[in-house]
Specification:
Elements (H helix, E strand, L loop, with lengths): L3 E7 L2 H10 L5 E8 L9 E2 L7 H10 L4 E4 L2 H6 L1 H7 L4 E2 L3 H8 L1 H10 L7 E5 L3 H11 L4 E5 L8 E4 L2 H13 L1 H4 L4 E6 L4 E10 L3 E9 L2 E3 L3 E4 L4 E4 L6 H21 L5 E11 L2 E8 L7 H4 L7 H9 L14 E9 L23 E4 L2 E4 L2 E4 L3 E9 L2 H12 L7 E2 L6 H4 L3
Parallel strand pairs: 1-2, 1-4, 2-3, 4-5
Antiparallel strand pairs: 6-9, 7-8, 7-9, 10-11, 10-15, 11-14, 12-13, 14-17, 15-16, 17-21, 17-22, 18-21, 19-20
Helix pairs in contact: 5-6, 7-8
Length: 428
């Protein structure tokens, strides 16, 4: 059997879970992760390469006989890493820049959905010099809540749900003047608020054939009961009971198929992971957002039940052989709780010693996100620090196992939500 040397791009919990899954493949030769974290180092070698410096990536790939590059985060994909490496005849798992625009520009995504009659919320778009016009538009609408979205990448922190005009004015000012958001908010999408329950569906596509891998429900808000600021994600569970077989079939017919076909017609065939952020409304499923990669922390709950060889799926995708494959998942439930640094997603401290990971029960996964190793100690090094994942025959079992094991993993100023998965428990 041929083996393949792989370079995995990224450094978060998503990449740790991908590295863990790739390491199970008999087809894996050497695994490198750039830049990686102490978790990915368990399965290969971390390398100090900036993923946005494509020439550095190319040199490393050539020097180390890499046969597949797997891109975890969105920023390199939107910046065109798949285009650059493909032009050098280096196979890449991930969409090219023109396809990654589905995440890279909310304006592009909304216009695309309107063109191909994919269900989504009504919207209007304003330039950065037109924020006063945006406020006038909101005042004329006089319908709250209203949703404000920075057009570009903002790490999950560029979306605001405003309950009144005063809050809309406040958030518009933040989008305009906050240096961390101003570039992403060069253009602004004002969107109607959709009532319903959110869930995510993950699709793998080679540009022609597509398969649903699994579904999950994320918890974006920092506070329990879905309150407070948006984050990159505070936890997830799968499967999401709101996505019944009937709704999943509707998602396939009205969203997945038109999206894949529409991207072909746009001459931007979509190859890689397509994340569908959905709102399940009384009128059926509607698209909240597209992402051009696995979600984080959803990836940490959808890869453990996947029975396929992940490397085999990635290779089939890059070789446009996905029609030869089918997806197999087990019937267990999974729950992931993110352990974060207190103060995230605004200001927080780093460098807190982490203990107790080796004390968790067998079958519990602890995926690293914002961690670093120094002087033999594991330290916190980000807002989202660790992901604790448990499983069970029922969602309640998965939740109970996860929270029981959180008690083992300790660091100063640790914060986590205590209600991950509770929405799923309210459904049969």
């Amino acid at each position: 059997m041929d083996t393949y040397n792989v370079l995995l791009i990224g450094s978060g919990g998503r990449e740790h879970s991908i590295a863990w899954k790739l390491a199970q493949s008999e087809r894996l030769g050497k695994l490198y992760t750039a830049p990686g974290n102490p978790g990915t180092a368990q399965y290969g070698t971390n390398v100090s390469i900036d993923p946005l410096k494509f020439e550095e990536v190319e040199s490393f790939v050539t020097d180390n006989k890499i046969e597949l590059v797997v891109v975890g985060p969105e920023a390199p994909l939107v910046a065109g890493i798949a285009d650059y490496l493909s032009d050098k005849n280096i196979p890449v798992f991930g969409p090219k820049a023109s396809a990654a625009l589905l995440e890279g520009s909310k304006e592009f995504a909304k216009d695309f959905m309107m063109k191909y009659e994919i269900p989504t919320a009504d919207y209007a778009v304003f330039g950065s010099e037109e924020f006063d016009d945006a406020l006038k538009f909101i005042q004329l609408k006089d319908s709250y809540p209203i949703v404000l979205k920075a057009d570009g990448l903002a790490g999950g922190k560029g979306v605001f749900i405003c309950d009144n005009e005063e809050e809309a004015q406040k958030r518009l000012n933040k989008l305009k003047h906050d240096k961390s958001l101003s570039e992403a908010a060069d253009r602004l999408v004002v969107e109607e608020f959709m009532e319903g329950e959110e869930a995510s569906v993950f699709v793998i596509s080679d540009g022609h054939t597509s398969h649903v891998i699994h579904n999950a429900q994320d918890h974006k808000r920092i506070g329990e009961g879905d309150t407070g600021l948006n984050t990159g994600g505070m936890g997830a569970y799968c499967p999401a009971p709101v996505l019944t077989d009937e709704i999943l079939e509707e998602v396939r017919e009205k969203i997945i198929n038109p999206t894949i076909a529409g991207m072909q017609l746009e001459e931007s065939a979509y190859s890689g992971i397509l994340y569908l952020g959905l709102m399940i409304t009384d009128d059926g499923p509607k698209v909240v957002e597209y992402n051009c990669r696995f979600g984080d922390p959803e990836c940490q709950v959808i890869l453990p039940p996947l029975e396929n060889d992940l490397l085999d799926l990635f290779l089939a995708t890059t070789q446009q052989r996905l029609d030869e494959k089918s997806i197999h998942i087990n019937n267990d439930h999974y729950c992931c709780v993110v352990l974060s640094s207190e103060g995230y997603p605004v200001e927080y401290e780093k460098g807190k010693e982490i203990t107790g990971i080796d004390e968790v029960d067998e079958g519990i996964f602890v995926f690293h996100a914002g961690t670093t190793q120094k002087d033999g100690k594991l330290l916190s090094n980000g807002g989202r620090v660790l992901n604790v994942v448990g499983s069970g025959n029922t969602l309640q079992q998965a939740i109970d196992k996860t929270y029981k094991n959180i008690d083992h993993v300790q660091f100063e100023n640790r914060y986590y939500r205590k209600d991950i998965g509770h929405k799923g428990l309210r459904r049969p």
